[in-house]
């Protein structure tokens, strides 16, 4: 039984790694300014809530809450649950952020 659990945990971690790689690739491809340069962050078109915290921006490291152009709170990709990572992929694919 423990072998099954171990195998599932390894597969889950592999899956999470694939998702985070995809997020990085999508971020670099889609979150760019008018000159094609990757932006350090972008405002989300809608605020996103995670563990009771409102988040209003996406960065290369994770989802953030930005006040007065400063990151107040950030949830890195490692902090987020797997389902939330999948939602981030959708945000990046659908370009649900303010493009410059």
How does this model look, in words?
- It is a single chain.
- Helix 1 packs parallel to helix 2.
- This protein is an alpha+beta fold.
- The protein is globular.
- A hairpin with a 2-residue loop joins strand 1 and strand 2.
- 16% of the residues are buried.
- The chain has a four-stranded antiparallel sheet with strand order 1-2-3-4, with no helix packed on it.
Keywords:
single chain; 100 residues; alpha+beta; 4-stranded antiparallel β-sheet; 2 helices
Biggest sheet details: 4 strands, antiparallel
Order of helices and strands: HEEEEH
State mean pLDDT (0 to 100 scale): 94
Oligomer: single chain
In whole angstroms, the N-to-C terminal distance is 52 Å
% residues in beta strands: 25-35%
The outline comes out as: globular
Q: Please compute the radius of gyration using only Cα atoms.
A: 15 Å
| Spatial sequence of strands, sheet with the most strands | 1-2-3-4
Catalogue the unreliable spans.
none
Based on DSSP secondary structure assignment, what is the total number of beta strands? 4
> Count the helices. How many?
2
> Helicity level, as a percent range?
40-55%
- Summing up helix and strand content along with how strands pair, one would put the structural category as alpha+beta
């Amino acid at each position: 039984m423990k072998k099954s659990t171990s195998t599932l945990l390894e597969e889950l971690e592999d899956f999470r790694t694939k998702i985070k790689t995809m997020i990085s690739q999508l971020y670099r491809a889609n979150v760019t300014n008018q000159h094609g340069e990757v932006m350090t962050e972008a405002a989300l078109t809608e605020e996103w809530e995670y563990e009771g915290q409102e988040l209003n921006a996406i960065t290369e490291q994770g989802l953030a809450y930005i006040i007065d152009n400063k990151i107040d709170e950030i949830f890195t990709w490692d902090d987020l649950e797997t389902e939330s990572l999948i939602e981030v992929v959708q945000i990046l694919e659908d370009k649900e952020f303010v493009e410059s």
